[in-house]
Amino acid sequence: MNLASQRQIGMGHTGTGIQTGTSSIFFNPGAMSYLRENGVTLGASGLISRIAYRAPEPTTTTAEADNPLGTPFQLYAVFGISDKLKAGVGVYTPFGSTVNWGEDWNGRFGLSQLKLEAIFFQPTLSYQISDKVGIGAGLVIATGSVNLQRVLPVQNQNGSEGHIELDGGADTGFGFNAGIFFQPTEQLSIGVNYRSKVNLQVNDGEVAFTNVPAAAGANFQPGTMFSAELPLPATLSVGVGFKPMDRLTLAVDVNRVEWSAYERLRFDFTKPVAGRDFSENARNYEDSYIYRIGGEYQTTEALTLRAGAYYDNSPVQSGYLTPETPDANALGLSAGLTYNVSDMFSVDASFLYINKEERTDTGAQSGGIAGTYKSVAYIPGIALNFKF
Questions:
Q1: Distance separating alpha carbons of residues 152 and 179, to the nearest angstrom
Q2: How far apart are the first and last CA of the chain?
Q3: Which of 172, 191, 334, 343 is the most buried (most CB within 10 A)?
Q4: Any idea what DSSP says for residue 322?
């Protein structure tokens, strides 16, 4: 999920077709050229997720992931070089997830814990061609990490099950974020934004084994390293903004996320693990669409209120569901506000509720764990805005 701006989370995470302030660096760099003041925004969310699992009948086995609090963040700064040319930089976390199933559930041989992180650094330039058109683009410099753990189907002399942990940081990856913003009238604005695919490559990741009996040592050798590729998908967004009155702004966005880049999850090992020098499971994600709507109303000079919603189609095909990302079609509902403490300082607050459909799947095509999964998330957030 993207959590790139507290203000825009409150509007259903719309923002491609409207001026969003410093967060235009993410939503549409073309709109950044319309900023009339220098600005800095620092924000973060608290991601509280719950995932429940039920094994196929006739068994009654259940499990719940004990996920830690996630803290995606964003930092934006925009400075005016001239009236029409603006420079900015953004640091944000558009991808990432943590799921912890523990080592007692019936799918522990497939996965016990997974943590993925990606951090984007984006220097950006934006130019206002005319009063009605602005363009902008930024170089995306990305880094990240992966940590995957699962239980091994072996036991040591004490009866404890084996354990494998893969941990590695990604080399720097590159991409771009470009957009065009068109405002034909004071009431209507349109935007198009494209954020490119970024490939993160993990090399020389560490593989650690514990509780492995001596008799199985040849299959789980110390000093094993791994490499893997983490494709982060491109996103094409089209947005429209409409101001039926001075204090009210409405926005609609459609995002096409090119998840088809995620074809497989593969780890290559420097020494055989369980007799193989690689591990590979198909993913074959499909491109998907997210439909967003939101609005904000300035009740007073100091207070602006927001609300929004979105519907996110899952890219995971039937037969490919896995406990690492037990994805399903999702509905997001959000609310937020901005309070202007002074002309130069304001505070944004937001809350997002995500409800994913209950989904039953065999996981037969992806090495997943058969069963029924249900996910919800509660995400409060806050941001501080400075103008100068």
A1: 47
A2: 32
A3: 191
A4: B
pLDDT score recorded for residue 1: 67
User: Concatenated DSSP letters for 197-211?
Assistant: -EEEEEEEEEEEEES
| 292 in Cβ contact with 12 (< 8 Å) | yes
Q: What residues have CB less than 8 Å from 272, skipping those under 6 apart?
A: 219, 221
Task: Give the single-character DSSP code of 47.
Answer: B
pTM, two decimal places: 0.95
Assign residue 27 a region (left: φ > 0; alpha: ψ between -120 and 50; beta: otherwise).
alpha
Q: Are 289 and 254 in contact (CB under 8 A)?
A: yes
CA distances from 173 to 59, 86, 139, 203, 231 (A): 45, 25, 11, 13, 10
Measured in residues, the chain has a length of 388
Q: ∠ CA(345), CA(351), CA(354), 5° rounding?
A: 150
Q: CA 197, CA 363: separation in Å to the nearest integer?
A: 26
> Dihedrals φ, ψ of 26, to 5°?
-90, -50
Whether 172 and 140 have beta carbons less than 8 Å apart is answered as no
Contact (Cβ atoms closer than 8 angstroms) between residue 116 and residue 85: no
The secondary element (H helix, E strand) that includes residue 307 is strand 303-312
CA torsion angle for 123, 129, 134, 136 (degrees, to 10)? Answer: -20
Question: Do 4 and 29 meet the contact criterion of CB atoms below 8 Å apart?
Answer: no
Tell me the per-residue pLDDT of 139-178, one tens digit each, with 9 for 90 and over.
999 999 999 999 999 999 888 999 999 999 999 999 999 9
Task: Quote the tokens at residue 321.
Answer: 């569901």
Task: For residue 227, give the nearest of 164, 167, 287 by alpha carbon.
Answer: 167
Q: Is 1 exposed, middle or buried (0-12, 13-18, 19+ CB in 10 A)?
A: buried
CATH number of 6-387: 2.40.160.60
Q: Can you tell me the distance from the alpha carbon of 153 to that of 112, in angstroms, rounded to the nearest whole number?
A: 13
